[in-house]
């Protein structure tokens, strides 16, 4: 099954305590599509301006991402900029995420039609006014989605089903160069794995999809922009999956 | 093997956004000894004042905690007070933990003799001046301890060996009533499990010990003070261990 990714395609300026880069390929759809492309065919839908580099269309082609739905219009490509604090986990976003507040009625109407809602911890708290992410996750499920995944940045992710629960750490990294797009990469990897590998989704498939999402996100933050997602191999992905599994297992036979 | 627990025994005043209680049994040694007592005999060493309730000595006896090393002296028992922010994870400690700064030379001399050092995330960052906990954990290992466990509060814990690594989430709880003592309970449960169940420690044993520590800590925070640790059963502990394992497993056969 192919995956349809609709969202922002941007040129980013990112500043961390040690580096600053501009005009990087960014936007949630760019990250999600790149991550998903390792598991399934992807159709990308978005808008770019006349200043958007043609080379990125070539990149999408190389990753078998169908960019027929990417419209080029007169004017500038959407620009996003972000600045990270010393711990690389607190972000000052220079644009705002207001979708929960400003279009709540539309959101509420949509939720019962959603199979899997992926959102981050602050969004989950905002939606439910709960501080406990466990309460938040269960509360959002009751608003309609069959499954809810809450991303916790460097602390991993939580997955809620009707009677099921999965807690997934983040793959441990010594050096994080740029956390931009990690959440979108996680979502893209998760959706891509499901689209490419699963016919009828079970909770076990969702666990595995969440782990692949985490693995892709761990590669993403190892370099600026989505550089690391341009030339990853399935062997690298699968090797990290196995290492990650071993690191998270409660009971492992001694070797 | 019995476990020797040396540390503070206190009467606590704890304030959360919804509750405040005073004169609660507290102190790191009280929590650690109570948690460890579910797995191994415990010898408790500490000092209390003339105002310390005799009933707590009876409690220790009931949990087979040998309190012969608890000295009662004239004057008041050590008082600790803490106040928690809305998320119950940020604490304003009204006493200070300065051991890393003020006695660093002694600490450095001790570390090579330590088998397992358990400390929290901010202490690990303070000791190494690293923001990455992965770097911090590996760095501390190089200072001497054979194994290092870093507690991350509601985000779980990390375990570092020479070539081994384990990432453990926190058991998910909807309601946390009082996080006081969770870290000491974790350490006591971990050390108690090792003392009571293991002859020659392997990394697999340490994983299991860390999980039991997390399980005990999850019970601890369900009630104020160490109320929940007074009357826990091994069946409750083992049941939660199994649930926790299932929630954390990467690959589970569908039932």
Helix percentage of chain A: 25-40%
Most extensive interface: A-B, 39 and 39 residues
Number of helices of chain A: 10
The helix/strand class of chain A is: alpha/beta
Oligomer: homodimer
- Low-pLDDT stretches of chain A are none
What is the beta-strand fraction of chain A? 15-25%
Nearest-integer average pLDDT of chain A: 92
Largest sheet of chain A: 4 strands, mixed
The N- to C-terminal Cα distance of chain A equals 39 Å
Q: What can you see in these coordinates?
A:
2 copies of one chain form a homodimer. Chain A is of the alpha/beta class. Helices cover 39% and strands 23% of the residues of chain A. Chain A contains 10 helices and 11 strands. In chain A, the strands form 3 sheets. Chain A has a 4-stranded mixed sheet with strand order 3-2-6-7. A 4-stranded mixed sheet of chain A has the order 8-9-10-11, sandwiched between helices. In chain A, helix 1 runs parallel beside helix 7, helix 5 crosses helix 6 and helix 8 crosses helix 10. The longest helix of chain A has 18 residues. Chain A is globular, with a radius of gyration of 18 Å. The mean pLDDT of chain A is 92.
């Amino acid at each position: 099954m192919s995956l349809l990714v609709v969202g922002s395609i941007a040129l980013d300026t990112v500043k961390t305590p040690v580096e600053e880069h501009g005009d990087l390929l960014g936007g949630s759809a760019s990250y999600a599509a790149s991550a998903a492309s390792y598991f399934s065919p992807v159709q990308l839908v978005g808008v770019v301006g006349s200043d958007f580099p043609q080379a990125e269309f070539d990149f999408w082609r190389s990753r078998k991402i169908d960019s027929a739905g990417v419209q080029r219009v007169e004017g500038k490509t959407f620009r996003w900029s972000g600045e990270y604090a010393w711990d690389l986990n607190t972000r000052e976003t220079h644009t705002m995420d207001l979708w929960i507040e400003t279009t709540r009625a539309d959101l509420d109407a949509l939720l019962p039609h959603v199979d899997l809602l992926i959102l981050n911890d602050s969004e989950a708290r905002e939606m439910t006014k709960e501080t406990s992410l466990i309460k938040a996750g269960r509360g959002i499920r009751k608003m309609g989605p069959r499954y809810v995944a809450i991303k916790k940045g460097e602390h991993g992710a939580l997955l809620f089903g009707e009677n099921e629960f999965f807690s997934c750490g983040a793959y441990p990294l010594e050096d994080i160069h740029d956390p931009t797009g990690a959440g979108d990469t996680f979502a893209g990897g998760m959706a891509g794995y499901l689209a490419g590998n699963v016919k009828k989704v079970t909770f076990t498939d969702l666990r595995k999809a969440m782990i692949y999402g985490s693995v892709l996100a761990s590669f993403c933050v190892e370099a600026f922009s989505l550089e690391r997602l341009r030339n990853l191999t399935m062997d690298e992905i699968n090797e990290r999956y196995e290492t990650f599994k071993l690191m998270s297992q409660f009971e492992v036979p001694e070797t």
